[in-house]
Amino acid sequence: MTRNLVVTGAGGLVATALTAALLPAFDRVLLLTAGQPDLPKLRRRIGRVLKATAAPAHLPERVTALPLDALTPAALRAAGLGTVAQVWNVGASLSYDQDRLAATVAANTAVPLRLLEVCAPTERFFHISTVGVTGPGSPARRDTITEAPVWRPDAVNPYVASKLLTEHMLDNLRARTGAPVSMLRLGSVLGPAGHPPVQDNRAGYFTLVEMLAKVTARRAVLTIDAEPGNAPPLAHVDQLAASCAALADRAGRGDDLAAYYHLGDQTLTNAAAADAVNAALGQRVLRLGPPRTALDRAYASVNADNVAFMSCGFRFDHAVLDAHVPAGARPRVDADSYARFVTGQLARLAARRTARRDTGAAA
């Protein structure tokens, strides 16, 4: 029997690595994009990840794509997906603007419910959620957050509110109908730990690296507002994808899966992370405290709010994850891997700048 897979958020950091990790186990993969898809580009991105892992080069040929708005049962059949084994909902709309609450809820809550209805996966519907819904945002609290529904969160912005609403609606649907649904809560995602970065992506901590590149070039210091003693959840994308592939394999074998998993680990406090960056770059470029950089006011404002919230005082309880995923696949970030990520990304940024200068000079 043909096994088919549907993945949203195509082309992003997590969805690209996830698709590459899942691709060998599925006969056909449908990527859903926010706009008109560029299928050759999507296949090339997935192919670069697969090449870094020595997987067969022909696998991206199994991938096709559709705009998310065009998804219907008829469109699924036309794409060769008469049935869908698994759905991985990775895409999301990110907004801190309270005026965007309705649009953010529509994107983050209505879409997964529609996906579940239209695709009707026979094995599992995996919903990628966010660490923001897993617990309190107050640094004064040091809770251990279990892999279970959360009823007292700090819903501080449209993104968090919409993600929390989605979890509870999916959880209610699962309890009422028996739909095979699992929620996977991620921390902030870094580039791969097991091989060099193979794709460009400006999301999350990649944006922080862009800022570090600017302050490094100016011999300046970037100040961000993060609690020094807190350890925000982080995950390397290749280890994250391996964990997801392990769960997908269990779902394919008909094993019992839990409704909630936490996929993120961290051995660094904010202060230790700053020390690791400074040591790796050989100078003091990152400092914790009130934000005062003027390099990019829009970035500084949004990142300050996000980092302050993400630096909440909780840690994951991985009991459920550990029972379902091999120990080697568990995402983990330590000082060395964090420093390698930063220096590796800065080297790539410098190489791109040099290439642009050379191209301009040749012109």
UniProtKB/TrEMBL annotation:
What domain of life does the native source organism fall in? Bacteria
NAD-dependent epimerase/dehydratase domain residues: 6-198
Q: Which Pfam families match?
A: Epimerase
Listed InterPro entries:
Epimerase_deHydtase, NAD(P)-bd_dom_sf, NAD(P)-dependent_oxidoreduct
SUPFAM superfamilies to which the protein is assigned, alphabetical: NAD(P)-binding Rossmann-fold domains (SSF51735)
TM helices/strands, residue ranges: none
- What protein name is recorded for this chain? NAD-dependent epimerase/dehydratase family protein
Q: What is the lineage of its organism?
A: Bacteria, Bacillati, Actinomycetota, Actinomycetes, Kitasatosporales
